[in-house]
Every structure is written in C-alpha cells, then in structure tokens.
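Title: Comparing notes on inverse folding

I've been comparing how different people in this forum approach sequence design from structure. To keep things fair, I'm posting one structure and asking everyone to reply with a full sequence. Here's the target:
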C-alpha cells in the first residue's frame, strides 16, 4: 500500500503542539464601562494575559486605539459618542460570534448606546456581559492617567465624562468592580470568576 505524504500545513495554521493545546470555548464580549482612569484597560489587560496563558483566543479593543484608527472622523458629541460605541460593538460582536473572547474597556457613557450593543449581540445569541468599573470620580481624578482631569480643571478641555459631561452608570450590570478597594489582580480574578460561572472560561 502506498502511503501518501502528509498535507503541508495551511498558511496561518497553528503548529501541532499548540493546536493540541487549544480548547474550543464560546466567544463573548465583555464590556468594561466606567469613568476615565477608572482602571478599565488595566483590568482588561491583566485578564487578557491570564486567559492567553489558558490558551484562550482573546482580543482587547482599546478605546484610544479605536478612536485613532476606526473613529478618527468622530468628535465627542452625544451622537458621535454613540456612533463610536456602535462601531466598537459591531466589531466585538463579529469577533465574539466567531469564538473570540473580546474585552472592551470603553467608557460608553450612555445607557441607550450600551443597550443597543447588547441587543446586537442578542440578535445573534452571542454572549454579552456588562461590567461596571465603579471607581469614584474623586479617585479617578487623582489617578488621572492621561492628564484629562487636570486639563479640565485648567479649562483646557471640556466635555469630560463624569465631570462636565454625563455618565449614566449601569443600574444592573453583570458585575460591579470597585477597583479602588482591591488590587488589579483581584479585580481581574473577580471577572474571571464571572466568566467561569457563565461557562465562558
């Protein structure tokens, strides 16, 4: 009997040892909403690292990067903020629907915008979780990672969410994280526990 040679690996295919380690999990979108400097991105990156070590397919959709590359044409009016959130929501839903766990650390200050994203996911039965990183504005203004609070206080900018622009906090989020009372690792662990509870990790 003639033995046919093994087919060459397809472009982009995982090496065999890596492929054997992969486990199929459902995709999902986890939207982390909260004030500027609340700790959303830091928690998302901490969790993403943990999930990758568990061989999960993870993407972090960072708000600043989206603004730079996908929503550079938008300002910060209510309509523009809504458009930005819907663009991010569409990208997240497509990724999640195809098996990626998507972490979205984006302010999304208006409840109706966030609800529209939830409905988009619901239309395709794609898991969606809303997490409120509930750091008080007094703490955020001290952290002031990007210097926004200082610029607002100096009159250099206006329309800062939670200061002179509205922020509608989630009333019933899937998880509320008070990052100012615990470490980043503890916050990420709380979110990981929620994913595990929902069968997503």
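Reply #1:
Here's my take.
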């Amino acid at each position: 009997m003639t033995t046919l040679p093994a087919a060459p690996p397809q472009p982009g295919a995982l090496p065999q040892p890596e492929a054997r380690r992969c486990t199929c999990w459902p995709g999902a979108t986890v939207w982390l909403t909260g004030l500027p400097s609340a700790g959303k991105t830091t928690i998302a990156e901490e969790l993403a690292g943990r999930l990758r070590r568990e061989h999960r397919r993870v993407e972090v959709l960072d708000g600043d990067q989206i603004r730079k590359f996908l929503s550079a044409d938008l300002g910060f009016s209510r309509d523009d903020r809504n458009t930005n959130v819907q663009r991010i929501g569409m990208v997240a839903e497509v990724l999640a629907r195809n098996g990626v766990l998507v972490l979205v650390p984006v302010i999304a200050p208006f409840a109706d915008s966030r609800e529209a994203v939830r409905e988009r996911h619901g239309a395709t039965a794609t898991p969606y979780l809303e997490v409120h990183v509930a750091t008080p504005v007094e703490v955020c203004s001290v952290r002031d990672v990007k210097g926004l609070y200082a610029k607002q206080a100096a009159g250099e900018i206006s329309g800062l969410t939670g200061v002179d622009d509205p922020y509608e906090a989630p009333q019933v989020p899937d998880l509320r994280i008070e990052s100012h009372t615990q470490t980043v690792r503890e916050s990420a662990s709380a979110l990981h526990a929620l994913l595990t509870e929902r069968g997503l990790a």
